[in-house]
Design goal:
It is built from five helices and five strands; from the N terminus they run H-E-E-H-E-H-E-E-H-H. The chain is an alpha+beta fold. Strand 4 and strand 5 form a beta hairpin. The termini are far apart. The model has no long low-confidence stretch (mean pLDDT 97). It binds tetrahydrodeoxyuridine. Tetrahydrodeoxyuridine binds next to helix 2.
C-alpha cells in the first residue's frame, strides 16, 4: 500500500487543533491509515487530575476499534505546530498492539518502523508463548 503521508500529517494537525490541553498547552493530534484504507484519528484530552490525561494515540486506538478494528499501517502524530511529536512510551506499546513491528511512524527525517521505536517489545505473542 502506498502511504499518503501528506494527508496523514494534515489530518493529524487538524486533530491537534481539537485537543483539550488546558494544563500542558501541548496540543497533540494523530491520524493513521488502516490495512483496509480507513483513516482513524485522535487528539489528547487532559484532565484536572493530571494523571488521567488521554494521549492522542489513545483516542486514535479507540477510533480504530469503534470504526471496525483492523491493523494500523502508518501513523502521523504531531503537535500544535504541525511537526512530528515522539509518541510517549505508553503509546508506543498501545500502537505496537494494533500495528505490530512494521507499523510506520512519520518522522522529521522520514518514516520509522515501530520495531526501531520499541525494540524487543513485549506483545500479544508473548501472552501466547510465555504462559506457564
Ligand atoms: N501527549 C500525547 O497526546 N501523546 C504522546 O505520545 C505524548 C504526550 C500529550 C499528553 C499531554 O496532554 C500532553 O501531550 C503533554 O504531555
Amino acid at each position: 500500500m502506498s502511504i499518503d503521508w501528506e494527508t496523514l500529517r494534515r489530518e493529524a494537525a487538524v486533530m491537534a487543533q481539537r485537543a483539550y490541553a488546558r494544563y500542558s498547552r501541548v496540543h497533540v493530534g494523530a491520524c493513521a491509515v488502516t490495512d483496509d484504507g480507513r483513516l482513524v484519528r485522535g487528539c489528547n484530552v487532559e484532565n484536572a487530575s493530571i494523571g488521567l490525561t488521554l494521549c492522542a494515540e489513545c483516542g486514535l486506538v479507540s477510533d480504530l476499534a469503534a470504526s471496525g478494528g483492523g491493523r494500523l499501517v502508518a501513523i502521523s502524530v504531531v503537535a500544535g505546530d504541525g511537526k512530528p511529536l515522539a509518541p510517549c512510551g505508553r503509546c508506543r506499546q498501545l500502537l505496537f498492539e494494533h500495528g505490530g513491528a512494521g507499523l510506520l511512524l512519520d518522522g522529521e527525517h522520514g518514516p520509522v518502523r515501530m520495531d526501531a521505536l520499541l525494540p524487543g517489545a513485549f506483545g500479544p505473542d508473548d501472552l501466547d508463548t510465555r504462559a506457564t
